[in-house]
Structures are given as C-alpha cells and as structure tokens.
Write a structure and sequence with these properties.
Length: about 300
Amino acid sequence: MAEHAPAAEAPARGAQAKDPTRALLDLLDLSSAEGAQTDEEIFVGSSARQPSRRVFGGQVLAQSLIAAMRTVEPTREVHSMHGYFLRAGDADQPITFGVQRLRDGRSFSARRTHAYQNGVPILSMIASFQEPDDGVTHQDTMPEGIPDPESLPSTAELLGAFDHPVAQAWAFDRPFDIRHVDAPLYLSNEGSREPRNAVWMRSLGPMPDDPNIHRAALAYASDYTLLESILRPHGLSWIHPGMNVASLDHAMWWHRPVRVDDWLLYVQSSPSASGARGLAAGRIYDRSGALVASVAQEGMVRIPSA
C-alpha cells in the first residue's frame, strides 16, 4: 500500500535542498542494473526522501512506467496502466524493477512491471502501448467557471511558514506546483462537503521534450490529491488525529498528448466509500480544454473509533 498519512517526525531538511524538478528527472532516470537479467528485464531506481520514510506511490508508478517504456518500440505510446500497491516501500532503499514482455502484437504491446524491495514486490503493474492510429473522437467537456491557477495560492504560500517537516516537504520538496480550486485539506476541511475536488498542477520547472517523460511524470502527479474527494464529505483533513490513508490501486488512461510543465486541471470525484475503502475518479484537462488523461484509484481510509 502507498502511504499518504504524514509522520510525526522526520529527518531535518538539508541546508541545500535539491531542485525538485531535477530530483524528479533523476528519479525517472533508471539504470539497467549493469546487464543483470532473469526472466525479467531489470532496472534500478532511487527514491525521494519522504517525511514518513515511505515511498510516494506516484513515484513508484512513474518509475515502473519508465522501466516498461524502455522495453517497447519508441513509436508505441502508453495508453493505459493498472497497478496494485502491495507493500509500503522504504524510501531509504533503491527499488528494482522487473519487466516482462507479455505481448507484442501488430498495433499493441503489453508489459508487466514488478517493483521490488528486499526481494518482494511492492507494486505490480500492467501497462499497454499502442502505435498511433486514427479513429472516432469525443471527450467530456472541461468544467466551466474554474478560477485561473494564477489567482490561487500555491502550497508553498499556504504551508511555507509552518515549522513542521511535513509542511516543509509539501511546500518545497514536491516537484509539482499544486493549487487547490476548493479550500485545501492540508490543515482543515472547510467549504463544500461534496465528494469532489479540483486542483491545477504543473511541474515547478521546464521538462525535457521527451513525451514519455511527460506521461510518466503525469502518473507521478496523479497520485497527489485524488483521495481528497473521499475525505471532503466527511470533514476530514490530512492532519485528522489517528487517520490512516493509503492508496490500494491505481489505474490511468492517457488520451491525448500532454506537457506537465503547462498548467493542467485535475477534476476529481468519489462515487462511493464503504468498508474503510473509498473510490475516486479523476479527469485531467490541459488549459485549452483537451481531456488528456483519466484516472481511478481505490484508497483505504481508516479513522479512530469515537
């Protein structure tokens, strides 16, 4: 499971913090494990330090995609991914990625990636790739009346003054600028109690022109706020005492070309929550209104008994 709950303690931040965009690109630059192979093709990646010392789920999703992309013809683009978070990852250890070539057809390729730590998988993912093709086209319409991202405060502006390691990490260490359309849930739950959420997001710095980097980075960012649509109707914020939140799975579909260094609107909703689990769905639009991706995730949400 990919943990979301903040930790009470965390290591002190270094005096020279690494540029978050450069750190993201380093995470996505997997090594080839010096040629080591089994029945899988092996790659190795590092982890970004987290206040909880747990690997961020979006990171391992993005790295697993990069590993799979390394085994597919460059002309074939990822169009869907389905992954299960099996265990919490340790951010102090590297991650080994094993890719199996499940199928290479005339138009589609399928890959299975397992992310391993200590010899056991922490994530199991299957991704599908397709040669570009023409066909019917339609999409959901981007919601109207959404304020521009420039009019909304950044996380750094909201949390930067709080002398707490989790607040500092959220404010300055994330490689994405996240701006909530609704009142953010970092410290309190105010405003609407509808099971909906929306944020603008973009990378803090410019990204390379490689489309695969942008697709993987979008998977990384898609895990940030999706479960907030489950928390809102119940009056919960990320610092609710004793709350434990973890991503259980993650599915994503890429519809159209995307750049993560341009503003993207991430519209989220939760159709159901029960049994200490909630389902959340998201649609990601670029600023022109094109629907570039869809996302779905089930998360565990446990709160202490009254």
